[in-house]
From TrEMBL:
Belongs to the glycosyl hydrolase 13 family. Residues 77-189 form the Pullulanase N2 domain. The lineage of its organism: Eukaryota, Viridiplantae, Streptophyta, Embryophyta, Tracheophyta. Residues 196-281 form the Glycoside hydrolase family 13 N-terminal domain. CDD domains: AmyAc_Pullulanase_LD-like, E_set_Pullulanase. Signal peptide: none annotated. Pfam families: CBM_48 (PF02922), Pullul_strch_C (PF11852), Pullulanase_N2 (PF17967). Residues 781-950 form the Alpha-1,6-glucosidases pullulanase-type C-terminal domain. SUPFAM superfamilies: (Trans)glycosidases, E set domains, Glycosyl hydrolase domain. This is Pullulanase 1, chloroplastic.
């Protein structure tokens, strides 16, 4: 669910480098056995929950005890109907005969060594030339399968509605092998469709369209309200080329409906009557079990001034100007006493101009933050829509326990699936706002209030990014309440393995964007959010599990939207995501996927895990005490064994190289001098596994971050990794130092909400389902939420021995003065970033020409990063002039526990001075930074980032 293989239902932001040693780590959304993911699941180094069952629709049976031709063999789908004329099967038929069997009533069975109960039995001819190239490109994972030709005379449209199997019969007629069929190939060939889907509203009628080519019958059950037991009307839909449709009266608007689909389901080997929502639902009932017939173009669901919102959106001249603040809707206001109780935790909290939270957002916006990234806001599982069903904990009771107690987490965990909290990486329906965030989950209220939220954020200068989770779905099968797509066309929308079981590498129920109608659904959904909700950006969860082709189409589609035709400027919609490469899609296993390296040149952003790991140390899946650049590596050892000094010192130099490549937008071709004194490109600086650090072609393709919703907060990680004997003031400076690297780097800076306030989750590594207690944000700045008990046992118990003494030590807890200073320092950083276009260069060439790193090579001051950015002068040949105020900038990052002096001949005789923002800062330490022009010598205080500028 948002940043990377973590331990919650998948959000992920864990990186390819992490995914290679993934080995079922923890992520943040859903969890598959030991693999968990916070929904972000793999998010940013992630951890998300798996609070759903990660069960496959294919029963797990011991094949070693079953002959290859048995009744159980029909539960598997090991053959692929890839085109109308070809079935692929990994079997050696020899001289035996291969047959296709079909039963409209799902009566196939294996008895007496033969397949019985079929309506159709037809011979398949094995070819000698293998699968055609176009099939291999579409299904690379079966490239070596045998190809069997299907007779052209068959009625294919009828056959796909049947139970299907293939079998090998030996010379005496006995069945030697049998299996079911996977149908996406033939469905794409015969039924790819670009016409209307969902509910379409005309002046006097409402039409319903459902793509369900394998269904034998479809009817719509119409209800007047969300809870009445009996439908007021049952409408039979008619089929044409796989699309079922019906036309009804306009007064259907405002009613609810569900589809009843009669369809063969491979999970049961039966024809099932599946009751489901419309995959193209735009509204829902409070229980999420019925689809609301709502017209998003109706004035009744538009806030005042909605149609003109495009004219009010904050300016965005270039994607290089983007900076992102990641925020959870409930976190924002659930604990804000300045928000009325009925608005707390919901959409409308963003509309209150005088609340503490909105005041904080206004400060961020004024300092330069451009986008608020909202964690999932579509209809997800894990939280009831109706608030009266939620369970609550006595806050005073929780406060009564010691800061290192097990009691808090035990009480929170006891109700964690029945309270109002979840990150939301458990998708049910992608195209409907989540009902639990609305004041009334029934009717169109959630639509209106969501729009009001977007409108309010735009009006305070913030664009809105949605976290979209197209890589997996919460449920599958024919009976699960939250299963939708797998009821409509079983076996099509979800990606399956060679046996026919659903792939779960993202956590559960991986979707298959390589299939035409899955890709179409994703594109249609994006367009709906962009046009009807005027969304300004999309963050793709586990984007690497989506095909590159789909992402390029998404970018092109969004870019084509215009103010004239759509009341949206699509050219200003920024898209980015988690480009991790793992699971069944790794190494292009299902086609060219949207992984970091594959997206080179696409203009789509991906999270840069390299700079995060170098700054903090290790990875989200390594030892929690492994130190990094800002947490004391080599400079202040914490006692964790990394080897002798001769081994640790090079680790710091390598980390520095990784950070410098990241500060140059992680460009593949950026040339710098590495720690060995060699000139190398970013792609020639390597990670521990030999993969390149630099992979981007332009600055907008790199999203730099040091923390996100997944894993521990920045302050918590620093509190874990630093020596126990340093002060809380020093940890606060490290927090600021890490943030400064992100804020002053080329590329897109990304910040986790609360890092600017020293946010703590009591060292919870995966808080996707840890309730308001562990996820609290305090915009009064009185508390950072440190020391509210040991974090939940499931994801954190193994680290409790490290966590407990830290939480118990009162010297670790920041005071209000520390939090206020952290907020002020963060605002200063953003003001500095936006004080000069030199921090936001738009091209790779511009970065290569203007950005230089000093203090490089083998003779260097340990840890110190010195970056200069040069501008041109009007009328002077060479660089063009971009900045009317400053002609030269020097950024010096000193992670050392002592002051550092650095002299460089190339920086002599300049008119450099400390940046005015830092000269006027409340941070007295940074004001002690100095520069001597005669010697080119800088003096920078301990744990400080100093910015020097040369005014024109």
């Amino acid at each position: 669910m948002s940043a990377l293989l973590s331990s919650s239902p998948f959000s992920s932001i864990f990186a390819p480098s992490e995914l290679t040693r993934f080995l079922l780590p923890t992520h943040s959304r859903l969890q598959l056995s030991s693999l968990t993911r916070h929904r972000s699941g793999f998010k940013l180094g992630t951890s998300r929950p798996l609070n759903l069952r990660c069960s496959s629709t294919m029963p797990l049976r011991d094949q070693s005890e079953n002959p290859s031709c048995s009744q159980d063999s029909l539960f598997y789908s090991r053959a692929f109907w890839v085109t109308k004329s070809i079935i692929a099967w990994n079997v050696d038929a020899g001289e035996d005969e291969c047959y296709l069997y079909a039963s409209r009533k799902a009566g196939l069975c294996v008895a007496d060594d033969e397949i019985q109960g079929h309506d159709v039995k037809t011979n398949l001819e094995r070819t000698n030339y293998g699968l055609p190239q176009q099939v291999i490109e579409k299904f690379p994972h079966i490239r070596d399968y045998a190809a069997f030709e299907v007779p052209k005379t068959l009625d294919f449209q009828s056959l796909v509605k049947c139970q299907l199997a293939v079998g090998i019969c030996n010379s005496d007629g006995k069945c030697a092998s049998a299996t079911g069929l996977q149908l996406p190939g033939i469905l794409d060939e015969l039924f790819s469709y670009t016409g209307p889907l969902g509910a379409v509203f005309a002046t006097e009628a409402v039409s319903l369209y459902l793509w369900a080519p394998t269904a034998q019958a479809v009817q719509a059950l119409i209800y007047k309200n969300p809870s009445e037991a009996n439908p007021v009307e049952i409408v039979q839909l008619k089929e044409l080329d796989g699309v079922w449709s019906a036309k009804g009266p306009r007064h259907w608007e405002g009613c609810y409906y569900v589809y009843e689909v009669s369809v063969y389901h491979p999970s049961t080997l039966r024809i099932e009557k599946c009751v489901s929502n419309d995959p193209y639902a735009r509204g829902l009932s409070a229980d999420g079990k019925r689809t609301l017939l709502v017209n998003l173009d109706s004035d009744d669901v538009k806030p005042e001034g909605w149609d003109n919102l495009q004219d009010e959106k904050p300016n965005l001249l270039s994607f290089s100007d983007v900076s992102i603040y990641e925020l959870h809707v409930r976190d924002f206001s659930a604990n804000d006493p300045t928000v009325p109780h009925e608005f707390q935790g919901g959409y409308l909290a963003f509309t209150l101009q005088d609340s503490a939270g909105v005041q904080h957002l206004k400060r961020l916006s004024s300092a330069g933050i451009t986008h608020v990234h909202l964690l999932p806001t579509f209809q997800f599982a894990g939280v009831e829509d109706e608030k009266h069903k939620w369970k609550h904990m006595d806050i005073e009771k929780l406060k009564s326990f010691p800061p290192d107690s097990e009691e808090q987490q035990a009480l929170i965990t006891a109700i964690q699936d029945e309270d109002g909290y979840n990150w939301g990486y458990n998708p049910v329906l992608w195209g409907v706002p989540k009902g639990s965030y609305a004041s009334n989950a029934n009717g169109p209220c959630r639509i209106v209030e969501f729009r009001k939220m977007v409108q309010a954020l735009n009006r305070i200068g913030l664009r809105v990014v949605l976290d979209v989770v197209y890589n997996h779905l919460h449920a599958s099968g024919h009976f699960e309440d939250f299963s939708v797509l797998d009821k409509i066309v079983p076996g099509y929308f979800l990606r399956r393995n060679a046996d026919g079981g659903i792939e779960h590498s993202t956590c559960v129920n991986n979707t298959a964007s390589e299939h035409f109608m899955v890709e179409r659904l994703i594109l249609d959904d994006l367009k709906c959010w962009a046009v009807h909700y005027k969304i300004d950006g999309f963050r793709f969860d586990l984007m690497g599990h989506i095909m590159k082709r789909t992402m390029l189409k998404a970018k092109s589609l969004l870019n084509s939207l215009s103010t004239e035709k759509n009341s949206v400027d699509g050219s200003s919609i920024y898209i980015y995501g988690e480009g991790w490469d793992f699971g069944e899609v790794a190494n292009n296993g299902r086609g060219i996927n949207a992984s970091q390296f594959n997206l080179f040149g696409a203009g789509i952003g991906s999270f840069n895990d390299r700079i995060r790991d170098a700054l903090l140390g290790g990875s989200p899946f390594g030892h929690p005490l492994h130190q990094g650049f800002v947490t004391g590596l080599f400079l202040e050892p914490n006692g964790h064994e990394l080897g002798d000094e001769a081994n640790v010192a090079p680790m710091l130099t390598v980390s520095k190289d990784h950070i410098q490549v990241g500060m140059a937008a992680n460009l593949k071709d950026f040339v710098l001098t590495n720690c060995d004194g060699q000139e190398v490109k970013g792609s020639e600086v390597l990670m521990h596994d030999g993969k390149p650090v630099g992979y981007a072609s332009s600055p907008i393709e790199t999203v730099n971050y040091v923390s996100a919703h997944d894993n521990e907060t920045l302050f918590d990680i620093i509190s874990l990794k630093t020596p126990k004997d340093i002060s809380v003031e020093e940890r606060c400076r490290m927090n600021h130092l890490a943030t400064s690297v992100i804020a002053l780097s080329q590329g897109i800076p990304f910040f986790h909400a609360g890092d600017e306030m020293l946010r703590s989750k009591s060292i919870d590594r995966d808080s996707y389902n840890s309730g308001d207690w562990f996820n609290r944000l305090d915009f009064s700045y009185n508390s950072n939420n440190w020391g509210v008990g040991l974090p939940p046992k499931e994801k954190n118990e193994r680290n409790w021995p490290l966590i407990k003494p830290r939480l118990a030590d009162p010297s670790y807890k920041p005071q209000k003065s520390h939090i206020l200073a952290a907020v002020a320092n963060f605002l200063n950083l953003m003001q500095i970033r936006y004080s000069s276009p030199l921090f936001r260069l738009r091209t790779a060439n511009g970065i290569q020409e203007r950005v230089r790193f000093h203090n490089t090579g083998p003779s260097w001051i340990p840890g110190l990063i010195v970056m200069s950015i040069e501008d041109g002068h009007q009328g002077v040949p060479g660089l063009s002039q971009l900045d009317p105020i400053y002609s030269y900038i020097v950024v010096i990052i000193n992670p050392c526990p002592t002051d550092v002096s650095f002299a460089n001949l190339a920086l002599r005789a300049k008119s450099l001075q400390l940046h005015p923002v830092q000269m006027n800062s409340i941070d007295d330490v940074v004001k002690n930074s100095t520069y001597d022009a005669s010697s080119g010598c800088f003096n920078v205080p301990a744990r400080t980032t100093s910015v020097f500028v040369e005014p024109r």
